[in-house]
């Protein structure tokens, strides 16, 4: 487990904190990322596409606005998002508390 | 997303609730399970081994006793467990609140 802090991630605002739960060798090239991610109020993770892999977000805490391949919707704890290969997404914290979610990238 | 309730899971006590976040076709045979699991106070998930796959638990809420291939340790929110192929694990809720965790099975 290691923690990474990324500024202006994918062209977003502010800082994103990524708590990596698995190391690469544990994922056996089946998954590309398994992490708990925190976006502070006013910060965001910019729009980006996935190719040859999908990414799932599972919201644990906070309130966000999610771009599902460009289409915006509100997300909150308990919500699941899924970006298949060839699509893109982004997520902004629009609340007053940290926005915390699980991120899982699956190859294929 | 669908919810499953399992009695005496893997020989454990009481009931375990599994909120499946991804369906099989979304996991492309790279992962076997991606779920938020809840074990109520006094309930447990019995000991079981994994072969040809690993399983990671990430504890979100509550307090438990985890069997790491037989060795016991306490787990709480923020803890990560990893069971490689060929090893086994179990988890019991020993607190007064629900024990909630993420479960991810990766093939290979």
Number of helices of chain A: 1
**How do the SSEs of chain A run, as a string of H and E?**
EEHEEEEEEEE
What structural category arises from helix and sheet content of chain A?
mainly beta
The shape of chain A is globular
CA(first)-CA(last) distance of chain A: 24 Å
Oligomer: homodimer
- How are the strands of the largest sheet of chain A arranged? 1-2-3-10-5-8
Percent of residues of chain A in helical segments?
Answer: under 10%
Low-confidence stretches of chain A: none
Largest sheet features of chain A: 6 strands, antiparallel
Proportion in β-strands of chain A = over 45%
Overall average residue pLDDT of chain A? 97
Q: Determine Rg of chain A (CA atoms, Å).
A: 13 Å
**Most extensive interface: pair and counts?**
A-B, 23 and 23 residues
- DSSP E strands of chain A, number: 10
GO molecular function, one term (chains A, B): metal ion binding
Keywords (chains A, B): Metal-binding
Domain Cupin type-2 (chains A, B): 36-103
Pfam families (chains A, B): Cupin_2
General description of the model:
Two copies of one chain form a homodimer. Chain A has 108 residues and is mainly beta. Chain A is 4% helix and 62% strand. Chain A has one helix and ten strands; from the N terminus they run E-E-H-E-E-E-E-E-E-E-E. Chain A has one helix spanning 24-27; strands spanning 2-7, 15-20, 31-39, 44-49, 53-61, 63-68, 71-76, 80-83, 88-93, 99-107. In chain A, the strands form two sheets. A six-stranded antiparallel β-sheet of chain A has the order 1-2-3-10-5-8, with no helix packed on it. The first copy, chain A, has a four-stranded antiparallel β-sheet with strand order 4-9-6-7, with no helix packed on it. In chain A, strand 1 and strand 2 (15-20) form a beta hairpin. Chain A is globular, with a radius of gyration of 13 Å. The model of chain A has no long low-confidence stretch (mean pLDDT 97). The A-B interface holds A 1, 21-22, 26-31, 34, 36, 54, 56, 58, 60, 80, 82, 84, 102, 104, 106-108 and B 1, 21-22, 26-31, 34, 36, 54, 56, 58, 60, 80, 82, 84, 102, 104, 106-108.
